[in-house]
Every structure is written in C-alpha cells, then in structure tokens.
Amino acid sequence: MAKVKIHVFLKPGVLDVQGKAVEGALQGLGWSGVSNARVGKLIEFDLAGAEDPQGEAKKMCEQLLANTVIESYRIETA
Fold this sequence. Notes:
By secondary structure, the chain is α+β, with helices and mostly antiparallel strands. Helices cover 32% and strands 29% of the residues. It is built from two helices and three strands; from the N terminus they run E-H-E-H-E. The chain has helices at residues 17-28, 53-65, and strands spanning 2-10, 41-47, 71-77. The longest helix is centred in the C-terminal third of the chain and has 13 residues, at 53-65. The chain is elongated, with a radius of gyration of 16 Å.
C-alpha cells in the first residue's frame, strides 16, 4: 500500500483569482509584506495493488486530477 500526495497548482503566468483574494485579505489584515499569493490543492489517498504508484499517480493526474493546460503537479509517494 502506497501513500500518495499530489500537489496541484496553477502554472506561472496563469491568473490566480483565489490567490489574489487571499493576498488582498492578508494585506487588509495587516500583513503588508504578503505578495504573489498562489492557491493550489492537495489530494491525498492510499493506493493498493500498484507496482508503480508514482506512474499510476501520474496517469491519474494526466487524465483527471490536473488540467495540464493551466496546472502543474508534483507527486509524493511513501
């Protein structure tokens, strides 16, 4: 059984509306040094029966979990 973590984030240059909202809110609360905030997502799951968990997770990202036109991803397995 493999523990899989997939970090999905917008590619550089893609407007991150959520990131801008978070940045503005933090600045409004007094953290004026915050800039270039980006918001992503973390997907965690257990994967059983896979000989190559990293490879299987990559296939999942390419087919469903990430929009590879505008998003990048990083896979961690343990």
